[in-house]
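Q: Can someone sanity-check these two? First one:
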Amino acid sequence: MSHKVFLGYRCKLVLAFDVGTTFSGISYSIFEQDEEPEVRGVTRFPADEHRNGKIPSVIYYDQQGNVRAVGAETTRECIYDTAQDKGWIKVEWFKLHLTPETDAAKLVKDKLPPLPLNKSIVDVLADFLRYLFQCASSYIKGAHVNGRDLWQSIEEDISFVLAHPNGWEGSQKFQMGQAAVLGGLIPDTKAGYARITFVTEGEASLHFAIQNGLPLKDMKEGDGIVVVDAGGGTIDVSAFSKDGTLGQDEFKEIGIAESHFHGSIFVSIHARAFLDNYLADSTFVNDLDHIVSCFDTTTKLRFRSDDGPEYIKFGFGRDNDYAHGIRFGQVKLDGSDVREFFRPSVKCIIDAIEEQWKSAHGNVTHVVLVGGFAANDWLYNEVHKAFKLFRLDIVRPENEVNKAVSDGAIFFYFKNSVQHPKSTAECLVLPFYASLDPEVPTKCSSRQITRLSGRIMIPKRFGTTVPSLRRMQPPKKDSKEVRLRFRYESKVEISSITMIFSRYHREPPFPQWPDLKNRTYQDFGSTTISLENARFQSLQRKISGQQGTYYQVDWEIILLLSLSEVMLDYGWVEDGVEKRYSELFITKIGSDLDGRTHIATISAPEYCLRFPEIFN
């Protein structure tokens, strides 16, 4: 695909970080005036002998919480002994601690290695992002002519693309934004957060596939594609179809993106459970951690068939236990046993593809497998066999599938090729609408209340619909403001006002009145305006009404919408002059703003604003 030439007056750097459960990678592109941008990868990391472009997502901390080794450094032969002697704490699979709280996630989190004491997931992620940023800086300085001068000219205005699993929403992105600040990627300002773009791993993988192996010329109008990003922790599955009305390489989303906890680490978990039982009465059971580690780096990667035996080489020629199939430092396993380690993950992938094929709003003709787990030949062959009769074309791009997300994130930044369906437009739940409205259903009239000002109102009717602006090009160049006016009344002086952000799922057209009983919306974040703060004290007015004295607050919510983010300002009028203040964007439910600037971007397309039920 030919990308638009960057027309700025100076160079601009875009860095994409793919923080995976087991391995992580960095891709980047330097936009230079009058030159077509090129996607490149960071291929040199400290202590990385393999130089395959990805490093382990592992950190060692000492007892004081200081970082002692990161990434490929953690695989050096001396690290294990040093860690044992000095009591260092190994942290791995930490990404999954960010996963939204669901029943499935709780089961997974119970199996995760614990975080160090006094370290939150944001702290750990910040340490890892800081390391990736340092690696990117060192690589670019050394890989480009006048690299140090180049870095110095662009380091204060770097744009970051952060990939995340399908299904991660406001809370997870807010924490990722916090980690980016703590890790030194961006300052804790509105301009700083504006330099971050989020992309789902499913969409990033689609953009990678468009560039690497997806037969666009053979695809007809309306042909669908299921993208499977098989990673270390999750299996992310998304469905899209080619839409010629939007452009030659444009797609629209035709299914509900899903994320399943069946990545490659679960193959290792099953292997560990088997070996723990198999070697229970062997002296080598004490080497279980090392044996499983060797399984991860050799046997798991090369497994192709269950017809013959498989071996895990972990020791030396003198290491033998014939009763347990250990000879010359190798554990001999039946291929059928190793197959069972893989079976739950492969079944999950096949079932997820079939579900997308059946439920997608389009004719699915292709399946694209990407991600480090997808490189396993047995997995690929099993998926291919499962859908042979379905006449689905199973594609595994020739280029490194383990770089699909980071490279695809850069391509996403160049050109968002996905049109999301109309059912994912944003909508806003306004607090009160007049009951005299002829469209008010009879069943809602019983909920009417009389405000202190004498206005007759009914709470919680859906109001203004804000269109999704995912397709604005180029990214962040333009934005659109949407203004919404609010009024709050109270008998007592108002100290703060809380707004709750909700997510709402329904096919269009959106109903005027939400189903409050069945709760068709889901809360996922909130923000609080503190009127005790000097900047907001002018908002409150004391009024003498028919029911006595009351307090009234008038203000505006100003939504700033761009390619993939929504930001938000407060606005009010003071002495005839408009004032504006930026103080959010998403905090966890129940948390209050403490006077610091809290801004984080959240991805479109579907978000709601509503008020808590507070009637005075």
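And here is the second, same format, sequence then tokens:
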Amino acid sequence: MTARSVRSARSPRRRTVVALAVVLAVLAGFIVRLVDIQVVNADDHIADSVANALGSSRTLYGTRGSIVDEEGETLAGSILLYDGVLDPLNISGYEEDGGFLRDDGGDEPVRVSWEQASAEMAEITGQDPADIRQAVADALADDPESQFAYLERRLTTEQYRDLVAIGAPYLTFDQHPSRTYPDGAVGGNLVGFMGSEGALAGLELTEDACLSATDGTVSYQRGKDGVVIPGTEVTQPAEDGGTLQLTINRDLQWYMQQLIAEQTQAMRADSGAIMVVEVATGKIRAAAEYPTVDPNDVTASEPEDRASRIFTNWFEPGSTFKPLTAATLIDAAGQKPTSTVTVSSTETFANGARVRDAFSHPAYEYTLTGVLIDSSNAGIAKFSERASAQTRYEYLKEFGIGDGSAVGFLGEQSGLIYPADQWDAQTTYNTAFGQGLTTTMPELAGAYTAIANDGVRVPLSLVESCTSADGTVTTPELPEPTRVISEKTSKQVRAMLENVFLQANYADAVEIPGYRVAGKTGTGEKSNGNGGYKVGAYYTTMLGFAPADDPEYLVIVTLDEPTKVKSSAANATAFQRAMTQVLKTYRVMPATTAPEELPKFG
């Protein structure tokens, strides 16, 4: 064999070896890359794959919890609204085929063009069909691959169903809950309202932890035509909010709101309020005021009317404090309902203080009961000397004055009472009849529960419970009831207040046939902001409970600066009607015993 023949035989073998080496090198490269993908950087690549495969997602909205009354009637709830979303790219694809196929009940499916479908959509949404088509055209002009354009947002369930019936494969819907208040302004001052950023006022805000939902998500893979690929969905479920039950009675609240609106306007007052409290439990059954807010239309109310004046306003209580002074004198100073004092319509005291009554009269020998019946400032001031200022201050604090309430309402104010060692000569006497200090409606109502409830002050409450989506029930933590006066003192003061309503000059206006009712009025002066009082401006109060011999419900009515009648007589009609409705609502039985008549003079 020649040398040339040997070289020729070796050449194919060499080429085979080189080719095999190249193949092995390429294979080795693939193996290295495979190891890198599946082992070294496996987690990163898996995450990327999932992100690409499940690149589309939408929010699953949880439903915000309802706010309900004591009977479970809805004061605030949630409804589903829908955002209609069009797929412009998908619309273009179907238009190339003359439209999508729809079964209209005939022998063969019919083709529905984009022009026809947009016209059907517009008829349901109330839009112009041309505007709908233009929105899609604009989306494609901005991005030829666009798969998103709004048809319309906040569609109702009825609109949603009608749009689905069109059968357009390029129309989808995003759900989201919206807040609704079925009875409008009923309880609006308490319930509060929502805004685009969440809860803004009232119980919607303070009880947001109970009511708020936790949103979930659903992720999925779409095909090129935008249709979700079956089996690719990954869901993180939403959690609904809890149900907040209030102590309020919805029907009673409605009645009281109509009543206080009528009375406020009739007396030409700036504002008014009615509060109803269950004596034994401290539960607030109504807290109505005027003006107020409709949470469905917040901007229709003035900003100052969107909160609750019941909890955020404070005032000088006037003569409604006289029973608290009387209770202190009986409980701590040995006085009786028939104890007497000689008093003229104007009295000057040893420390230089001067007190006068709202009416002129000669020197009377008033009983302690008579002082309350005639609402004598000078009389209760003279009686107040029989207990030390410090004792009276301590009892007022025990009655809850200056400490707010256990409700803890948003922006709730507390009254203001200075310690006794800071009282000047005039304040020492003025505090006996509700001047030189301030209080609030909840504080005053709480103080009177001590008189009505055998001497025990019960903390007020507005929230009954929160029931979470899983059924767990949580109730508010409330302070323990506080004994303020003895049971005997409570009974005596109740009898005195019943005689006030029987013998005062407004007795006929507050009478409820068949029932025994007790109470007191107050006409407080209003500060002018400069250390004095406004001329002719008053904050009037009427407060009482029934049945007088075994109290079940307490009603307090206030008017801010009534001008038609400037005294607390302005409140009488509303009080009588309010208490009458309360007794009917809770089916309180009429009296079977007669009241004890107490003397006004000694």
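A (reply): Looked at the second one. The two ends are 158 Å apart (CA to CA). Confidence is low (pLDDT under 50) at residues 50-54.
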